[in-house]
Description:
Blueprint: H1 20-28, H2 32-45, H3 49-60, H4 72-83, H5 85-111, H6 115-124
Helix pairs in contact: 1-2, 4-5
Amino acid sequence: MSARRTSFYLDKANAKWLGVCAGIADYTGIDLTVVRIVTVLGTIFGSGALLVVYLIIAWMAPPKPVGLYENSDDAKFWQGVRQSPSRSTRDVRAKFRDLDRRLAEVETYYTSRNSSLANEIDSLR
């Protein structure tokens, strides 16, 4: 079974301790340093309750599969999907509409009665 790109995983490759903060940063797209600072401050000012939550997440979450994303663009795309699936769908539809429009323009250009294009093709023969 292949790994789901929209699931939360512990990021052991970028981990300092158990990989929870790195996993949260990878999942949300927030800078890793910011996540770590918020976690430390939350643990200090929250009387250690966040540490218990951190340990539970570390115990329950699976590690990130090797090769989950081919490149950084792929990772950014899936972070966007997790943050706002409807926006991602809208962006993909807009890209396909643009491609379809451009393809229609090319098709119209080549199928129209364009004498200059016909002359260029005839000169190549």
